[in-house]
Amino acid sequence: MESGRPDRDEPFDFALENRTSELYNDRMRYLVLYLILISLIGVLEIVVDKSAAVRNRSGADLSRISERTLLLTAALGGAAAMLAAMNVVRHKTRKKKFTVTLPVMAVIHAAAVVLLAVYGV
């Protein structure tokens, strides 16, 4: 078995193959759940910050979510959902920091997910 493939005389360990596949599926499932959760958190942050910004214009004194927090959430995996939310609620759409950084992060995240799906976790 020098080539890495089992010879006809050597039995292939299908149980090991099956366990490896199950582990890969579990890891991908957790990755997808993580990305959904961080995306929901990011969308919620954008909507809450937009609401606070609108209310502050009419005299309320609400605390805002910092740009640093928004960008950190985007960097942790929520960039694509936050970009969509940003455009839907029209929040931070004039800031280059967000209009450039979030799409770049979203592309990097998408590429990472594809690479993990193709080559394994």
For the secondary structure, the number of strands is: 0
Could you estimate the helical fraction of the residues in percent? over 70%
The helix/strand series, from N terminus to C terminus, equals HHH
Question: How many angstroms does the end-to-end distance come to?
Answer: 26 Å
Percent strand equals under 5%
Number of domains: 1
| Helix vs. strand class | mainly alpha
> Which shape, going by the Cα principal axes?
elongated
Oligomer: single chain
Kindly provide the radius of gyration, computed on alpha-carbon positions and rounded to a whole number of angstroms: 22 Å
Low-confidence stretches: none
Largest sheet: none
Helices, by number, come to: 3
Mean pLDDT: 88
Structural features, described:
It contains 3 helices and no strands. The chain is mostly helical and 121 residues long. The two termini are 26 Å apart.
Q: What's this entry about, in short?
A:
With 121 residues, the chain is mainly α. The protein has three helices and no strands.
